[in-house]
Amino acid sequence: MADHRPTISTHVLDLEVGMPAAGLPVALFRLEEDGQPELMSEQATDADGRIRSLLPSELQEGEYQLVFDLAAYAATLDRDTDFFENMAVGIRIDDARRSYHVPLLLSPFGLTTYRGT
Q1: If you average pLDDT over residues 18-25, what whole number do you get?
Q2: What does the angle CA 68 – CA 16 – CA 9 come to, to the nearest 5 degrees?
Q3: Pairwise pLDDT comparison (20 vs 81), residue with the higher score
Q4: pLDDT of residue 4
Q5: What is the Cα 39 distance to its own chain's centre?
Q6: Distance, CA of 84 to CA of 42 (rounded, Å)
Q7: Cα 78 from chain centroid?
Q8: Phi and psi torsions of 63, nearest 5°
Q9: Fewest 10 Å CB contacts: which of 9, 29, 48, 61?
Q10: HSE on the CB side for 47, CA within 13 Å?
Q11: One-letter-per-residue 3-state SS of 14-78
Q12: What percent of the chain clears pLDDT 90, i.e. is strictly above it?
């Protein structure tokens, strides 16, 4: 049986077009004790709108921030940027033995996220 390494993942759906948001850039930051963000990774969602692991190393307890570049995604679709240009989601990891999933639902004038499974 393969080892399961806990991670932070995401899945982005574009409700305007009714499809996964492929090619959407996402950056993951870990906040230092002084609150300064440290860039951990920058990736783009796959054809299914997913990034299965944003972590380049072991998950540690602490505060993280995912930043979704919505303007860059809109540009890939050759459409005007919607009202929201980016979305930053701060999360707190209290148990580094489990994985965390942060889905995002996009629409031109609304964004929804939640703690997924």
Answers
A1: 96
A2: 35
A3: 20
A4: 77
A5: 13
A6: 20
A7: 22
A8: -105, 135
A9: 61
A10: 0
A11: ECCCCEECCCCEEEEEEECCCCCEEEEEEEECCCCCEECCCCCCCCCCEEEEEEEEHHHHHHHCC
A12: 78
Task: Please identify which residue in the block is written with the tokens 């609304």.
Answer: 110
pLDDT at 1 over 50: no
Task: Tell whether the model's pLDDT for residue 3 goes beyond 60.
Answer: no
Average pLDDT of the chain is 92
User: Quick check: helix, strand or coil at residue 71?
Assistant: helix
Q: What is the DSSP letter of 116?
A: B
d(CA 57, CA 60): 9
Query: Which residue is it, tokens 């979704």?
Result: 68
- Is residue 14 within 8 Å of residue 110, measured between CB atoms? no
pTM for this structure?
Answer: 0.91
